[in-house]
């Protein structure tokens, strides 16, 4: 957006990734997360105090107009929670924090103190979903006045030109194609639910799981008798073609989710999603209009939805069109960027 940006991260792997993926951004490792290896709580506090001084010095040298702290999940890293304080000590005029995951309940007095410090020295806390905002206020004492609701934004996926050939391979007899896209192979993503729903479906349905999956998952597929109906292409650089080729995306998560980007990416391709009714997923899926939601872990309910979809392709086309309309209205990348521009300027960025 025409502004000079510097990214600082404590992990060498994150610095290397940022340099590779965003060569236009200055990247540095101005502090360390070695406090994780402290031999005692007192030593940990001493190491953190040293890192607070280093962060403060780094921010003072950079002298940014805005400090934007990105926290993967609350409570997250102690360094991240100290960063707003370091920014204030360094004289940074505006300090913003984004929390990208649902918060845990507090565990001990130390976390209460850390929360208070983080909120007191932040000018705004960005939440990508109302579920995250409510959780931070209810579980971690975030003052509601600090909340800025800014939905994630994604670009329209490419790959449309390759979709027809891909679909022909996935569903040679015109079956309903249901997909799942996963970057982290953790059980909470609902692999077992996806597998059982496919196995239980009585309609002509085929599946494709793009990305990573847990160890021994291929054995589970074989044991379920789905080897001929479920394709496992693994990691793909061109995921967009799959979004365009499938009839419906499934997000069968069984634990907390902020707002899965895969739902928004599928919507940008005009593909509806069936997702678990938890956390921010119902905020991304307008139930009955742009997709469907079902109870977390309920494979039978998902199988029933797949059977309905296979018997009514016209409704799936309508849901896909509504999903695309919602993406255009609420989840475009430029909309998210404009909201952050407003936030950096001191204006409200909350999206209705």
Describe this structure in words.
This protein is α/β, with parallel strands linked by helices. The chain has a 6-stranded parallel sheet, with helices on both faces. It has a 4-stranded parallel sheet with strand order 3-4-5-6. The protein is about 45% helix and about 15% strand. It contains 14 helices and 12 strands. Helix 2 crosses helix 3, helix 3 runs parallel beside helix 4 and helix 7 packs across helix 12. Helix 5 links the parallel strand 5 and strand 6.
How would you sum up this structure in a few lines?
With 352 residues, the protein is an alpha/beta fold. The protein is 44% helix and 16% strand. Helix 10 packs across helix 13.
Work out the helicity level.
Answer: 40-55%
Mean pLDDT: 93
Order of helices and strands: EHEHEHEHEHEHEHEHEHEHEHEHHH
Major beta sheet, specifics? Answer: 6 strands, parallel
Beginning-to-end CA distance, first to last residue:
23 Å
Low-pLDDT windows of residues = none
Number of strands: 12
Radius of gyration: 22 Å
Helical segment tally? 14
Shape: elongated
Structural class: alpha/beta
